[in-house]
Design a protein that fits this description.
299 residues; alpha+beta; Phosphorylase Kinase, domain 1; D-amino Acid Aminotransferase, Chain A, domain 1; 5-stranded antiparallel beta sheet; 7 helices; 25% strand; globular; binds adenosine-5'-triphosphate; binds magnesium ion
């Protein structure tokens, strides 16, 4: 395992790279190339170490879910060979990380759906009895189910933290027709995804979708990544025990470790020990294996 290297930055020759926190984005005119690197962010910082193959897990799971859902999405192709001017070295590095997508006007809201009380939702409920301003039944414990699942949008902040907002606020910006459509579609795919995950022994506690409109046709479509461990909380259903936080398949593991280091979150994060990197990698790969039922092709 020690020979495995994380891809921290991709380099598609001849194109300008725009870096997200995790994905490198290249502009091909009417299309984009999204390359999922192995970067991992926590507390709004990109950590100095990557998680080898994490980008491949995110890409494979997004492809898996895009194929399952009926709603339109941005995917055109996932074959590295279809990219212009890729050298053999670059090809092996990029294999499994690439999505060629339709360029979208991204709707500037994170469409979050919560079926369980966790994270910031739990904190707000504990303190105020609400989640994103919506009142829930009283007496719920941390990690309890929220039935029916709720739609709790957040703004997509250019810098700093995304901010939870009320649905009414989203309606003010987008109009009720689009806002309701995004809410209903997001809840619908959360339900479908959660039902499938449950059949594989996982609880999909919550997730975040991004939507956009096709720059050419105006069609509403699902963009970015979908139901990955970076955009979702997955829990092992067999160990599920409400009344506290649940072990998850995402970067919570790294966050918990960071909390033990005394890092102030205002200066660059500390180096990440090898065993934390390895254990995080295993979590992501586990999620892939359980959801798809397949062996991970790069392990
Ligand atoms: N089809 C698309 N058209 C235009 N932009 C897209 C499309 N799909 C995804 N994007 C954008 O590409 C970027 C993907 O990079 P990444 O997910 O690393 O960004 P980020 O938002 O900075 O990170 P994070 O999701 O961790 O907040 C996002 O800004 C996303 O909104
Ligand atoms: Mg993102």
């Amino acid at each position: 395992m020690s020979s495995r290297r994380a891809l921290m930055q991709s380099n598609l020759r001849g194109f300008t790279r725009r870096g997200g926190k995790v994905r490198d984005v290249y502009d091909l005119g009417d299309r984009l190339v999204l390359v999922a690197t192995d970067r991992i962010s926590a507390f709004d910082w990109i950590l100095p170490a990557g998680i080898p193959d994490k980008g491949r897990v995110l890409t494979a799971l997004s492809l898996f879910w895009f194929k399952r859902f009926q709603v339109p999405n941005h995917l055109i192709d996932d074959h590295v060979d279809r990219l212009p001017n890729v050298s053999d070295d670059d090809r092996s590095e990029l294999e499994g990380r690439v999505m060629i997508v339709k360029k979208a006007h991204v709707i500037p809201f994170e469409c979050v759906v919560r079926g369980y009380l966790a994270g910031s939702g739990w904190k707000e409920y504990r303190d105020h009895g609400t989640v994103c301003g919506a009142k829930l039944a009283s007496g719920l414990k941390e990690s309890d189910a929220i039935d029916p699942p709720i739609f709790t949008p957040a703004t997509k902040a250019e810098t700093g933290h995304d901010e939870n907002i009320s649905f009414d606020r989203m309606v003010e910006v987008l109009g009720s027709e689009l806002a309701e459509r995004l809410r209903d579609l997001s809840v619908q795919i959360y339900r479908e995804g959660a039902e499938f995950a449950r059949s594989r022994g996982l609880i999909l506690a919550d997730t975040k979708f991004e939507w956009g409109t096709d720059l050419k046709t105006g069609e509403l479509m699902l963009v970015d990544e979908v139901l990955t461990p970076d955009s979702s909380r997955y829990w092992d259903a067999s160990g599920y025990k409400p009344g506290g936080p649940q072990p998850s398949f995402d970067k919570q593991f790294v966050r918990d470790w960071l909390e033990t280091t005394g890092w102030d979150k205002a200066s660059p994060p500390p180096p990440v020990p090898r065993e934390i990197v390895d254990q995080t990698r295993n979590k992501y790969i586990q999620a892939y294996k359980i959801l798809t039922g397949n062996a991970f092709p790069w392990s």
